[in-house]
Amino acid sequence: MIIEIRDRRGRLRTRERVEALPVSIGRSQSADVYVDDETVDGVHARLEMIDADPRRWALVDLESVNGLRVKGQKVVRAELASGDEVRLGRARLRVFSEDHPVAPARLVSDRRSGAVFAASLAGVALLLGTSTLETIFGSWNEIEPAALFSQVLVQLTVLAGWAGLWAFSGRAFVGETRFLEHWAIASVAIAASSIFTAIGGYVSFISLPSESLRLTASLLTDGVIATLALGAHLARVSAMPRNRVRWTAALVSFGLIGITQFSDWSESDVFSGNLSFDGELKPVPVEVLAVVPADDYFGSLSDLQEEIDAAAEEAKAENE
Amino acid sequence: MRAAKFFFACLLGSAVFLLPQATPASAAEPIAETTTVFDQFSSAVAKIQIVGERAEAKASLGSGFFIEHAGARRHLVTNYHVISQALLHPETYRIERVDEEGETSLLKVAAVDVVNDLALLVGEFDSETFLPLATVMPAQGERIYSLGHPHDLGLTIVEGTFNGLMADDWGEKIHLTAAINPGMSGGPTILSDGHVVGINVESAGNQVGFVIPSSLAGTMAERAAQPDYVIAEDLTDEVRRQLLAHQDAFLAEVLSKDRLETQTLGPFEIPSDFASFLNCWGQDSDQDDALFESTLRSCSLRDSIFLEDGLQSGVIALEHRYMETSKLDPVRFYSLYESQFSGAYYGGYGHTEDLTEYVCDTAYVEAEADARTATEAPLVLKTVFCARRYVKLAELYDVVFKVATLGDADRGLTSRLTLSGVSFENGRGLAERFLRSIRRRAE
Description:
The structure holds 2 protein chains of 2 kinds. By secondary structure, chain A is an alpha+beta fold. Chain A has helices at residues 110-137, 145-173, 179-207, 211-237, 242-266, 294-319; strands spanning 2-6, 12-17, 23-26, 33-34, 45-50, 53-61, 68-70, 73-75, 77-80, 85-88, 91-96, 291-293. In chain A, helix 1 (110-137) packs antiparallel against helix 2 and helix 4 packs antiparallel against helix 5. The radius of gyration of chain A is 31 Å and the shape is elongated. The model of chain A has no long low-confidence stretch (mean pLDDT 89). Chain B is built from 7 helices and 25 strands. Chain B is elongated and about 80 Å long. In chain B, helix 5 packs parallel to helix 7 (424-436). In chain B, strand 9 and strand 10 (172-177) form a beta hairpin. At the A-B interface, strand 12 and helix 6 of A face helix 6, strand 21, strand 22, strand 23 and helix 7 of B. Strand 12 (291-293) of chain A pairs parallel with strand 21 (359-366) of chain B, so a sheet runs across the interface.
């Protein structure tokens, strides 16, 4: 059998093949398996066979200071199967049978890196395309090519910085850089956000939704895009299971949106004097708009008056 | 209000050049007379201060005078704007008279005329001198004297020349050549025999001042002298009634017609110079390299009624901007058009205690569906009606009405009507007429 000792960060410290049981485990020179950790006793525990069966093992605490823990629970004796983990103080001990299965080797493929390169190029092209269109269609003055070019440079720099940070984290946590993948993810996310904003402008111009519906739709879109992007980044820099990555990404994205909304809301009792209306104007044929006759429109303003009066009376009551 | 004051300054500044300049009198004689006038009547002028209840320090300063009207000697006359803070916030401010020895005594508002910026005060006072009101206007060029407490510097007399009456949007004001400084507001402008011609309002700079004709103070004093007159507990209600009555009368003519008078702007008919009280300007874009052309027509009222700092009633302003392009594609043109229309800032002044936030209603409206012939393209406008209410003055609202014509790829008209301190009905009525008056010009 094999005994593996890892430190609290999961780094492998000792790996030993044990021919005969029982063995003693600890920090002293006399221990059969040496564990270099100050939270482990000189002779901390003993690994022995159960019923003389060479495939069933038990770890017994030898009245150590920090004891044994299995899945966070303190135990005096732990029955172990191949692959199980026990904590001795802060150190982690795992036992394996000699025939414990290992995952198949990952294929190193040149085709995959080619695809990643193509995807990152496509992502950048998409981003630069949408942002250039955004600049051209959002401006009504003569467009200077130099200004467009400098905007492209700025975007590429920011993108490189962002992807670089993720790549660095990946290198540190899972030993994989994947710079181009991070680069592709970020550019697609930014481009998607611009595209959805543009589409949203036309949809809201045509449908004139209520202020709250409009806000909900835009926050939801932002949240979903951020979740997808953050999830994709996270999956490449951590060894977390898929589901946990998704939940973490969603929690962080919507959490951030929630915080910004909360800070907006907490300032809402400051008098602004501003009009809150939807000022969008789009070049669409008037036939697609829900047009009302003037009489109906001005007639319906009585509801508005009621709403304002209610707010005024509320403010008046508050003052008194 | 500052803008209105500034505008008045410009207006009067330019007016004075058109009027015959008063001939400067010889040096010795008027000075002797001025001294006599000062000695005789200065005790009729009171110093009035508004004191914050919590700070126990004066918040503002003005002047007033003891009036003798129809034999009664009971009142002090001053400007409404001198005491407005105390009237609208009685729990926070009180009004005091400061006598020559610096002793203070409490004053109470007996009546107001907010439209003409006048107030009548009562209190425990015992003055030796009371000023009667002049029954006839002096001749142009006649010598007059303004008294008051400018900048807290002590009682001052300013000698000037009567230059006649000047009509403004609300009524008549007397125009004189004399420097009336802040703090002199509410003080009297008198003839050498002590008869009050008017009540000081403010200086417009350059030795030009204007005063409110004293007959208006007389009307107010008569009202308060009626045997059955009771001083209202809360005068804000009286202020509200006066404003509503005034604007009803003021807007009656405009609201009597279904459509306003229109002018042309590009391919549209627009309501701009539709009433005599509006002053209009126009402006064309003159950038040669611009990818679009823009023409502006804007109008506003010359004066407004002061309510308190930051609040005023009776502002009517409107603006039309027509834009067209032959160089921009529709998407880029609409970015420009949208930026013109979506401005949302209309005055961060004010406080939640005084005003509600604006609430808006947005729709696509076809103004004159019936009037349109079958071949004509419909004129659809994006229409935004926003209003907010004065918290203490029920029935008074500020209204911002914005419209933008839709459906043309290369041209558009955005228009805005801004009203302040109007009743909801008047605001809605004017907005509706404003919208119905916008049309495509017949080819």
